[in-house]
Automatic annotation (TrEMBL):
Key word Transport present: yes
Sections of the chain in a coiled coil: none
Pfam families membership: ABC_tran
Protein name: ABC-2 type transport system ATP-binding protein
Annotated source species: Actinoplanes philippinensis
ABC transporter domain residues: 9-234
Membrane disposition: Peripheral membrane protein
GO-annotated cellular components: plasma membrane
Location, primary (coarse class): membrane
Length: 310
């Protein structure tokens, strides 16, 4: 892991206002070094405003932020060579080719990564001489990711890193992020893809209307629930009366039973014992637990967007 005792990112009681609108309201979070933190929330939840604070593009209206132990605004010139920033909008020159853009940003770094390696790894070699404005949205995203990584950063900010990418490119990006973490690089990313967050993130912060609605590891956020639904395939037309107390039981198709409610370990054993006692020939059993997407939707379903701020 890259040296230093300070957290990669530490935000305490940060407030961001746009006129009368409060986009970020007393938000605190910590990203330890060498970990991946996913910042989740609907458009308007305050994610992009919070990233701008951490990247040093504006000061908070209240509270404080420290990035790699430094003030992201006051120490901006010292901090920037240590950061990789991938903007959702690209943030590069539209008339330059992909190869020119990547080599330009590599020239700013003291010890850049090999640009040819990045072009090959991100599937950009055949677009090396294509102007940025002629690249597809997914191709522009891949180039923006290469630009963020070429300077060997200690900390990477990724705003919707796989937006517009096809499945292969998305999985390549996931692998790169996992390799960054293995090398001790810290990553703060925003994403609307809940499977992406569940796979990549060590820690998750869910924002709602400018505040933190929940925080924890993906396992912590999903472990509060027992099994949501038990699906059993057995003989059709069973008398389900004995299963119903305290549970929802249905046979949506002949021989396919769904049971929900009261399905902790003891409840699960009781249900399966009932099928055994009934003499039913059980041929398949499937369970479903709450996912990060379930948690996210439950926490954000009633969100009212905060103006146009993100």
């Amino acid at each position: 892991m890259i040296g230093g005792d300070a957290a990669a990112v530490e935000v305490r009681d940060v407030v961001v206002r746009y006129g009368e609108t409060t986009a970020v309201d007393r938000v605190s979070l910590t990203l330890p070094r060498g970990r991946v933190l996913a910042l989740l929330g609907h458009n308007g939840a305050g994610k992009t405003s919070l990233l701008q604070i951490c990247e040093g593009f504006r000061r908070p209206d209240d509270g404080r932020a420290r990035v790699l132990g430094l003030d992201p605004v006051g120490d901006h010139d010292e901090l920037m060579p240590r950061l990789g920033i991938m903007l959702q909008s690209g943030g590069v020159y539209p008339w330059a080719t992909a190869g020119e853009i990547l080599r330009l940003f590599a020239s700013f770094a003291a010890h850049p990564l090999d640009t040819d390696m990045l072009l090959d790894r991100l599937g950009l070699r055949r677009f090396e001489r294509t102007r940025f404005r002629r690249l597809s949205g997914g191709e522009q995203q891949r180039l923006s990711l290469a630009v963020a990584l070429v300077g060997r950063p200690e900390l990477v900010f990724l705003d919707e890193p796989t937006a517009g990418m096809d499945t292969e490119a998305r999985h390549t990006t996931w692998q790169l992020i996992e390799e960054l973490r293995a090398d001790g690089v810290s990553v703060l990313l925003t994403t609307h893809l809940l499977d992406e967050a569940e796979r990549l993130a060590d820690d998750v912060v869910i924002m709602r209307s400018g505040t933190v609605a929940a925080t924890g590891t993906p396992a912590e956020l999903t472990s509060a629930a027992a099994i949501d639904v038990l699906e059993v395939r057995a003989d059709p037309g069973l008398d389900l009366t004995g299963l119903r107390p305290g549970r929802s039981v249905a046979e949506p198709a002949p021989g396919q039973y769904t049971i929900s409610g009261g399905l902790d370990t003891a409840g699960l054993a009781e249900v399966l014992a009932w099928f055994a006692a009934s003499g039913a020939d059980v041929t398949a059993i499937n369970t479903r637990r709450r996912t990060l997407e379930d948690v996210y939707l439950a926490l954000t379903a009633t969100q009212t967007p905060v103006g146009a701020a993100q």
